[in-house]
TrEMBL record:
Name the record gives this protein: ethanolamine kinase
Pathway recorded for this protein: Phospholipid metabolism; phosphatidylethanolamine biosynthesis; phosphatidylethanolamine from ethanolamine: step 1/3
GO CC, alphabetical: cytoplasm
Gene3D superfamilies cross-referenced by the UniProt entry: 3.90.1200.10, Phosphorylase Kinase, domain 1
SUPFAM superfamilies recorded: Protein kinase-like (PK-like)
Protein family (similarity comment): Belongs to the choline/ethanolamine kinase family.
EC number(s) reported in the record: 2.7.1.82
Gene Ontology molecular function: any one: ethanolamine kinase activity
Matches recorded under InterPro entries: Kinase-like_dom_sf
Originating organism: Populus deltoides
GO biological process, one term: phosphatidylethanolamine biosynthetic process
Length: 386
């Protein structure tokens, strides 16, 4: 995991542009993707970041290049634990105000996110009505159309009407066809994370002490055991979001319109993983797993996911199968984000206790493992005896 050279970074922006351009397809004549080789320093405060951000917008969009800097206003939309989202409002010469969203990738996030995969997917997901339109790419981020909606908070997701809408939207999301390999990437990603996470070195003494308490052989055995069990479930493979937390769901309250956004972790994966991961996110960043949805709440979600138009006609057999599937893959979600957190603990400059987050996720995995695995094994033995 050595440092990356400038020439590597420069090559990557051109590759990113090529991927995004290539993904636009035949109907792209009305929308030309803009590109810039500029980089923004994510460590700057908003006032210091504003002038280079204005420069970027002028470089990307030629119609804005002659506007006075006072025509631009910048505000923070959100700062996640991997990205910074900014809203730039531009007063054009005709007096119209145009908002765009600038997404700045967190430093070193390319160790845990496949940007090429993300850019390829955005075009097709956007055409299917998901997320914002991709308007431009630059060295360490992208510019997208602005979505006029609020970001959900964890409590929102369990509200029955919203839970039903999320389930319906996820059903539609899972039906989008993304060209290319349909091979599930989940286990490839987990084993890659494991490989990188198990050979880290921390200069900080406290971090090193915490890190050295991790029994990586045990973690590896857990990964292998759960993979073998989930493989037996034969879960359908879909193009999954893989990070359906409250921050990646937006709602326009007036129009009652829900948006699924941010496809950084999107890949072909298992249906149950996407849903189990979503249920884990009811706990929020604080990891209050007492908020994990009850069986009744899950069944409500499953019915609207399986048959959005006729949720009450879903058979008990189908609901039970999805319940077992989601609650087994829920364990995999804990392993994925636990290993992800270790890499972030080493690579990310963001002030977040990633090492502590590893233990929160891994401990919850161990706490839930026996019950979830016995549910899956009991279900599978029942299937065999039929």
């Amino acid at each position: 995991m050595g440092s990356r050279t400038e020439s590597e970074s420069e090559r990557e922006i051109w590759k990113a542009m090529e991927v995004a351009e290539g993904a636009r397809g035949d109907n792209s004549s009305s929308h030309v993707l803009q590109s810039s080789s500029l980089t923004l320093d994510t460590s700057l405060s908003l006032p210091d970041l504003t002038p280079p951000l204005i420069e970027l917008c002028k470089d990307l969009f030629k119609k804005w290049s002659r506007l006075d800097d006072s025509s631009f206003s910048v505000e923070t939309v959100s700062g996640g634990i991997t990205n910074l989202l900014l809203k730039v409002s531009v007063k054009e010469e005709d007096g119209n105000e145009v908002p765009v969203t600038v997404r700045l990738y967190g430093p070193n996030t390319d160790y845990v996110i496949n940007r090429e995969r993300e850019l390829q997917a955005i075009k097709y997901l956007s055409a299917a009505g998901f997320g914002a339109k991709l308007l431009g790419v630059f060295q360490n981020g992208m510019v997208q159309s602005f979505i006029n909606a609020r970001t959900l908070i964890p409590q929102d997701m369990r509200e029955p009407k919203l839970a039903a809408e999320i389930a319906k939207q996820l059903h539609k999301f899972h039906r989008v066809d993304i060209p290319g390999s349909k091979e599930p990437q989940l286990w490839n990603d987990i084993f890659k994370f494991y490989e990188n996470a198990s050979i880290l070195h921390f200069d900080d003494i406290e971090k090193r002490k915490k890190y050295e308490t991790i029994l990586f052989k045990e973690v590896y055995n857990e990964v292998v055991e759960i993979k073998e069990l989930t493989d037996l479930l034969n879960a359908p493979v879909v193009f999954a979001h893989n990070d359906l937390l409250s921050g990646n769901l937006m709602l326009n309250d007036d129009e009652e319109k829900l948006y699924i956004i941010d496809f950084e972790y999107g890949s072909y994966s298992y249906r149950g993983y996407d849903i189990g991961n979503h249920f884990n996110e009811y706990a929020g960043y604080d990891c209050d797993y007492s908020l994990y949805p009850s069986k009744d709440e899950q069944y409500h979600f499953f019915r609207h996911y399986l048959q959005p138009d006729k949720p009450h006609e879903v058979s008990d057999k189908d609901v039970e199968a999805l319940y077992v599937e989601s609650n087994t893959y829920m364990l995999v979600s804990h392993l994925f984000w636990a290993l992800w957190a270790l890499i972030q603990a080493k690579m990310s400059p963001i002030d977040f206790d990633y090492l502590g987050y590893f233990f929160l996720r891994y401990d919850e995995f161990k706490r839930r493992k026996e019950k979830a695995c016995s549910l899956a094994r009991s279900y599978l033995s029942g299937q065999e005896s039929r």
